[in-house]
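Below is how a single chain appears once it has passed through the pipeline. First comes the sequence as given, then the structure the pipeline wrote out for it. We keep one example in the README because the format questions we get most often are answered faster by looking than by reading.
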Amino acid sequence: MKLFVQIPCFNEEHTLKYVINSIPKKIDGISELKIIIIDDSSTDNTIEIAKSARVNYILKNHCNLGLAQTFKRGLEACLYLGADIIVNTDGDNQYNNEDISKIIKPILENKADYVVGCRDIRRHSEFSWSKKIFQLLGSKIIQKMTGENISDATSGFRAMNRNAALQFSILNHFSYTLETLIQASRIGLKTIGIPIRNNPALRPSRLFRSIPEFILKQSMTIVSIYLFWNPYRFFFYPALISFFISLFSSSRVIYYLFFVERGFEKIKIGSAIFFSISFTFTLILIIAGLLGQVIFSLRMLMIDLRTRVRNIELQRKIKPHNLDIITIN
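Resulting structure:
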């Protein structure tokens, strides 16, 4: 089994050496372990630090693409280089990399395709109470959406087998963590969470500047991903609410037309207009849900086709476009 540990980096000259040095040199069940740095166009000495450490490969983005797209390019590089298992860990040294053996164990035992290393959010000493609340709330929402018991949905410490990495299609630019979880549940990958340890923070998070910004970005990500991967449900509940509203307004119109004493019949103009608007809105939502479901079915066919094509390309050693990998060791 060939294991690749990928480390997405952006200006991590002060922390990267600790991350690399903490990665185990040998792991049971792994015959070959490689480390690859995906540099998101750093402006400091990140590349020089990586070259002086025990890194095997470096992939440098030509411009700053953001964490999600950097993660995606890392997967493409690892697949091209022949990875059987891919572990992602962050360049800020927040995860205890000695737990790599824990998160790859279910994959080695064929019990999971995708494994998330879950921090103990409630006991995390460096998280504020507000961040703990929103982290736990967000994870609960993702659990409801996916049906998987992942207690730390935003953790970047993850492992996946080759099949999972081949099928992931990441469109988001903010973060891959939520998108891949929802996507994994929709394409039938077995996903589990494993408790892990974390290290003391060496620097603050750069993904967001404040809790409100974090909430806004994650909320937008959840809504857009759910619309993308589960359009029928996304439109079904608003359509149901709109239908009952139109039903209530129509009952008032019908009552004053047919169930009052003869000679007192009248049309409630306001209720009739409200019924027309709400009923039309219901129809629009239903049509949007049906069209979304058709598009989703086509998307699943495209994912299957894309996976088959990528397999053929990898078998023929065709390098993905714009993937300039530097070999160090």
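The CA atoms of residues 169 and 208 lie 24 Å apart.

See the next section for the split statistics.
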